Amino acid sequence: MLMMKYRKMRRLIPLLMLLVVTGGGIAIAGREADADAIRQRREAARHYYLTAARYSALGQNAEAAELYKKAYMLDSTYAEAALQYGVRRWGMPADTLSTPSERAESKRIAKKFLKEYPGDFFPNLFLSNVMERAGEFDESIAVLEGINRQDPGNTDVLMHLSALYLDTRQFDKALDAINAYERIEGEGIELLIRKAGMMLAMGDTAAALRETDRMMAKYPANTQYAIFKGQLYSYINRPDSALKALTYAETLEKPGYGGPVKLQLADYYRATGDSVAYDRKMYEALLAEDLDFDTKNEVMAYYLQTLIRDNADRSRGDRLFTVLREQYPHEPDLLALSARYNASKSDFPQALDDIGYAIDMDHTNPEYWEQAIVYAFMLDDHQKADSLYNKARQLLPKTPMRIYSLAGTNATVMEQYDRALKIYQLALDENFPGQHISQKADMDALGTFLTYDNINDLISLYTEIGDAYYKKDDREHAFINYDNALALDPDDALTLNNYAYFLVEENTPVSDEDLEKADDMSRRAINQNPENPTYLDTRAWVLFRKKDFEKARELEERAIELLGDDADEAELGEYRHHLGDILFMLNEPAKALEEWEKALKGCPDDSLLRKKVKDRTFYYE
Question: Is the overall model pTM greater than 0.70, yes or no?
Fold first, then answer.
């Protein structure tokens, strides 16, 4: 596609620094008296330059910058070295190099290459990109215009120029560049979209519509142009014209085809609130032969999200699943989507069946195993969840940390704390060698293995390890792991909340230092999510321990309100237990007893709570 070439060119930018190695030669110095000394300096500069390029390719940018500098200092006429040294000097954050005069000097050095090789495409494109990132748009455009003068047929330059002209609101020039591109590469829907966008930005809606009509007349059998016309009318808020254009586009398709235009029509009906027509077009789109399975699966996922979000009639989703299941009986991704949909309806037995079939078709997909363990957990079938974890470890090429985390939580719920801790240790051993669950994390060693993708998993893991130790009545190691989690992210709300609560839990002596620590952590957690009932309960209990009973009551009542009457009975019982204690300290014993009695229904095994109800008084054991 026409736009694909442009996007590929954009992706070449990071590689240009390496490609520059192949360009040019060393500029000839004309005024050196000692030819042998000149030759030696040039050879040394060449050596430094090539070594710097290797360092740059390995990502060792500091070393590369120093070597480019040496190459340039040895031979200031070496254009390639001037380019590489100049742009690096330009980007250095040092205060001494960030003044306007120093930035100008860096630019002057880098532009030596432009002067020496004005038509050399890749290096100058690289220089233009550096200038663009530095906000030097006029300079960037000037470099590209120079390349264009040398090579007016280079469509990569024309596309890049068009984008820069557009960014700097030079709409006429942007349009001229796109028209030049079109004369060389030919017409297409991508260019029409780009040109119409420019015309709209110029405020010339009529021109955008004329250009679209021209393309429709030239390619009358191509539905893409009619679809775009419908989109264009929707954008300028002419819904009747949009519907007319899309309906016309649908008539161009053969029976059983036209998936893309049916999706556009479905989107139109959704926007106008016609749910019957929306469902009909979604159904037709999913039957269309010219939509592949991946697109249909994505469309179905979006459709189901809207049903769930709007709390709509789920039978509509059931009908569409019937269509897709008949079309693609052997697609595991469809089964996984069906499992998520059934889980959203709290039909966890069916969700577990669906994902089980998906695993049978593809046992190497870790997301399927994660879903299965979650569904078993939600069914309180903890033995099944544990069995799934063991099978996943056998069949997956590598067990993700998420699966270790789920299995550890499952073992903790089963009160198999030692097993949970062994699972967590396995997760550390496989992903962060040298770290131990009972010790403070070695942050220097962790840095070798930490990535953007796994740091959040590790934070969660440390919090879960802390929870398991706490359930095992090992506060010392619980707090070590909470500290490990907070060392990685001091603002992790879940860790802050759990840590704060366990510091001040009922029937536990609390020092002034721990009370202040819990106060700070619970405040930080609640600031991040003020409507989280768990965090509100923790904050209320911290305030209770600080004897701020009025504020504690306000937050605890809000937590119970947010939790709702359909919440887990044990969790709701714990909140009502706290509220009863708060009310008793506010000298409202009758209301306190009422809350304790309600709490006891959810927490029948709580001996302290039973004692409070029996004796109608508040105290610690």
Answer: no
